[in-house]
Write a structure and sequence with these properties.
- The chain is built from 4 helices and 73 strands.
- The strands form 18 sheets. Strands 29, 32, 33, 35, 36 and 37 form a 6-stranded mixed β-sheet that branches. Strands 39, 41, 42, 44, 45 and 46 form a 6-stranded mixed β-sheet that branches.
- The longest helix has 10 residues, at about 5-10.
- It is flat and about 150 Å long.
Length: about 850
């Protein structure tokens, strides 16, 4: 993975090349005793294991303080380990390391660090890796990221080294596990190809994605890198696709990958670009960019972060290769570090600052302060042994039944396990979750399960600390149940009548009947929905025998009813009947209902004798027929018969119908207002449907006057309303030979009062102080009304009220103070209805008024 790093720093030319001078601290580290005879326990909870790339060392460090708890592999002390670029904890709890061996690429290998003994051994040697590299067109395998899959096999990035421009791949090495001891079985498969210098990798962390492998395809500065997803990486048919495209969120050179507490993917951007701006990018579980997570934005400038881990407190830890490089490649020495970022992405501190203090190194005629620490990978679960899990001992269910699965798992560390199931050999996990999930028959069918088949199920168990294992597949047998079907019905049937056949099935919990097919034995058949319990049929030929058979079809089979039925069809008279109302008004159509016991198709016609001299024949078998009786009240007896191919069959009983007299059609109309004491005209309309005549009308004028009876059927009648304003409702009835009938409508009439005719007149001038006479004229148009009083307004501020209806009234105009002043006289009169103004006024000029 860090192979590019050398080329990047050589371009920077920040520090000239020169021989590296070893300090006493460096020499002391190189002289540490071999670890082969040490017994090293598993890493304690809260600690992390960090590989130092250019030191070829491995340290156990505190995740919270950065303190070096133990040196698992001292710097440059083991010939089998050179430049560790990737680490993963195996199912046995041991540490497996990608050894790149930059100075001798042909010596690259996969190394195992045994936690129990503290020893390093070659797990997959260079001959295996070199052969694979050659087959892919690469000069060197240069292993980078590696990870154990849920199948227990080891997945390794074929990086190819810094000069590789193609041929990158992900190789699955088949691993044998014998009593907890892992070994390479000798076979391998490329699960992804066409990559360029792939680096780190991680499997998904959800039930559905734990067998999907996500790989940083760095692009090696040849092209911008991206993230590749390998679905079903543990299967015979893995499928690779671009999960996060290059440039998404400024993604350029992806390296380390890890899943965050909320399920998002954190991607380390190594910054192998001109800017050298390292960063951590946050994506959703679906690959959608969220944000550049670390801040401030220059926190990782020139630090070249290569890996990331999540601490127990939820903080992010980055392994930074550092801004300098070792003497072997012309530099002063490495100066890497581990940074801690808070859960919100804010820079917190340099964990390794005090543990790997800077040392003065003679370089290019001067002294440079650097450390020899170059962290490349962080793991947090060393010593965590994978759980064991079984999918059960095999299952058998009947079709149509549900399936309850039983996972049997245990974890050496006592961690709580979560379970994800793959059904029907699809290698798609997450189709069921939990230790004992139940799948309904509908769910099983949706997953391709059918009756009479066998399928396999697998369960994947996760301890939540990085170990995921998949069980061996177990078989589920789905028993196909026999479909038991039967038919039942009478042994005898009437012709032209409904025959009812019962449909019976007993699936014993199996797949429902989709449809029935019935052969009636008369040359016809019927198909009905499987949910039907009865079906009808009409036999048309009497005096014959027929054999009924049936089959039931479901998704699995077609099953015949166990026993056919023989039916004797006998002749059944049609037994016609008629019914209807007992009476009908003359002139109104009468509806006669027809019915028969025979099937409708057997009836050729009906013949109806209406009893009034009319006879009617209708073809077929209608449910009713209409008739108009003569317009006269009387009773009639209706008779009917039906005709079939077997003969004519009369009804058993006549139907008596009475035709009743029909009321005439009556209406009245007229104006809605009139004046008192005037003649009002009411329009009359009366129509008989027969030869009957209206004998007389009776009018109720609504004003309390006696009912007015007018003979015959006039078109109008008159009335004078009383002398007072009021509203009246006029109604009427008409009488003929059949009775008396009310008109359908009424007239609401408003009678208006006629005001009296009023006028005044008098002299146009008068001397001041003289008596002025005003003449009054008031006449009522209706004698029943009279004027009760007059009110005179003299125009000079004086008002006079006189009782009754006098001919005149007097007034004296005085003391105005103005000679020749004019006044306008007006008057009103009040009768028993209201007060009304005189039509005219009188103007009077008063002269000679003395001044005061």
């Amino acid at each position: 993975m860090p192979a590019f790093w050398l080329r990047t720093f050589r371009r920077r030319n920040a520090i000239a090349r020169g021989p590296r001078q070893l300090t006493p601290m460096t020499r002391a580290r190189l002289s540490l005793d071999s670890l082969e005879d040490r017994t090293v326990p598993a890493v304690a909870s809260g600690n992390m294991v960090v590989s130092s790339f250019f030191e070829s060392a491995i340290y156990e460090m505190s995740e919270t303080t950065g303190a070096v708890v133990d040196t698992l592999v001292a710097p440059n002390s083991q010939s089998v380990l050179a430049n560790p670029a990737g680490m993963a904890v195996g199912p046995d709890g041991n540490l497996y390391i990608s050894s790149q061996s930059l100075l001798d690429p042909a010596a690259n290998s996969i190394v195992e660090y045994n936690v129990g003994t503290g020893t390093l051994t070659t797990f997959i040697d260079s001959s295996v890796l070199n052969a694979i590299a050659t087959a892919n067109g690469d000069a060197s395998f240069t292993p980078a990221g590696l990870s154990f899959g849920p199948d227990g096999n080891l997945y390794v990035s074929l990086n190819g080294g810094q000069g590789a421009t193609s041929g990158g791949a992900v190789i699955r090495f088949d691993i044998s596990n014998s009593g907890g001891v892992l070994s390479y079985s000798g076979t391998n498969t490329a699960v992804a190809t066409g990559l360029i210098q792939p680096t780190e990798m991680t499997f998904g962390d959800t039930a559905a994605t734990r067998n999907t492998l996500y790989v940083s395809n760095s692009g090696g500065e040849i092209v911008p890198g991206d993230i590749v997803a390998i679905a079903h990486a543990d299967s015979a048919s893995p499928s690779q696709s671009t999960f996060i495209a290059s440039g998404t969120g400024s993604l350029n050179y992806p390296a380390g990958l890890t899943w965050g507490p909320q399920g998002g993917l954190y991607v380390v951007d190594l910054a192998a670009t001109a800017s050298h701006q390292g960063q951590i990018l946050q994506f959703t579980a679906a690959g959608k960019f969220v944000k550049s997570f670390t801040s401030p934005s220059n926190a990782l400038l020139f630090q070249f972060p290569s890996a990331i881990a999540i601490s127990p407190s939820g903080d992010l830890l980055t392994a930074n290769l550092g801004p300098t490089y070792p003497a072997e490649f012309g530099g002063p020495g490495t100066d890497g570090s581990i940074y801690e970022f808070l859960g919100n992405g804010r820079f917190s501190k340099v964990l390794s600052a005090s543990l790997f203090p800077s040392e003065p190194v003679a370089f290019d005629g001067g002294t440079v302060d650097v450390t020899n620490f170059s962290p490349s990978v962080i793991v947090t679960n060393l010593g965590d042994v994978a759980p064991t899990v079984s999918a059960g001992n095999g299952y058998a269910i009947d079709e149509g039944s549900s399936l309850t699965l039983h996972a049997i798992g245990s974890d050496p560390e006592g961690y709580s396990l979560t379970y994800s199931w793959s059904i029907n050999g699809t290698d798609t996990f997450g189709q069921a979750t939990g230790a004992n999930p139940t799948l309904t028959w509908a769910q099983l069918k949706a997953l391709g399960v059918t009756a009479g088949s066998s399928l396999t199920v697998e369960v994947m168990a996760s301890d939540g600390h990085g170990q995921v294992v998949t069980s061996a597949p177990v078989t589920v047998t789905v028993n196909q149940l026999p479909v038991k079907v039967a038919i039942a019905g009478p042994a005898k049937a009437g012709d032209d009548t409904d025959y009812n056949l019962a449909l019976e099935s007993n699936l014993l919990g199996g797949v429902p009947i989709a449809n029935w097919t019935i052969n009636w034995g008369d040359g016809t058949s019927t198909s009905v929905d499987g949910g039907k319990q009865t079906v009808q049929h009409v036999y048309t030929n009497a005096v014959d025998f027929y054999t009924i058979s049936a089959t039931a079809t479901n998704e699995d089979s077609v099953t015949a009813a166990a026993k056919p039925i023989q039916v004797e069809v006998v002749f059944v008279p049609p037994k016609p009947t008629i019914s209807g109302a007992a009476s009908v008004a003359e002139g109104t159509p009468y509806t006669l209902d027809l019915a028969t016991a025979a099937d409708a198709s057997a009836i050729q016609s009906w013949t109806i004798n209406w009893g009034d001299g009319d006879s009617q024949t209708v073809t077929g078998n209608p449910s009713s027929v209409e008739h108009n009786f003569p317009i006269r009240p009387r009773s009639y007896a209706i008779f009917a018969s039906v005709t079939t191919d077997g003969g004519v069959y009369p009804v058993a009983k006549l139907l008596n119908v009475k035709v009743t007299h029909a009321a005439p059609t009556l209406s009245i109309s007229g104006p809605t207002s009139t004046v008192e004491d005037s003649t009002y005209i009411l329009q009359l309309s009366g129509t008989e449907i027969d030869s009957d005549t209206i004998e007389h009308w009776t009018i109720n004028w609504g004003d309390g006057s006696p009912l007015q009876v007018v003979s015959g059927n006039p078109t109008s009648v008159t009335h004078v309303f009383v002398a007072k304003p009021v509203n009246f409702t006029i109604s009427a009835t008409a009488t003929d030979v059949g009775g008396t009938y009310a008109a359908a409508d009424t007239v609401v009439l408003s009678v208006q009062h006629v005001p009296p005719t009023l006028s005044i007149i008098g002299a146009s001038s008068i001397n001041s102080g003289q008596t002025y006479t005003l003449f009054l004229s008031g006449m009522e148009s209706v004698p029943d009304h009279s004027i009760l009083n007059w009110t005179i307004n003299w125009g000079d501020g004086a008002t006079t009220v006189v009782k009754g209806n006098p001919a005149s009234v007097t007034h004296v105009f005085t003391n105005s103070g103005t000679s020749g002043e004019s006044f306008t006289i007006s008057a009103t009169a009040t009768d028993d209805i209201g007060t009304y103004a005189a039509e005219d006024t009188q103007v009077v000029s008063v002269v000679g008024i003395p001044h005061t």
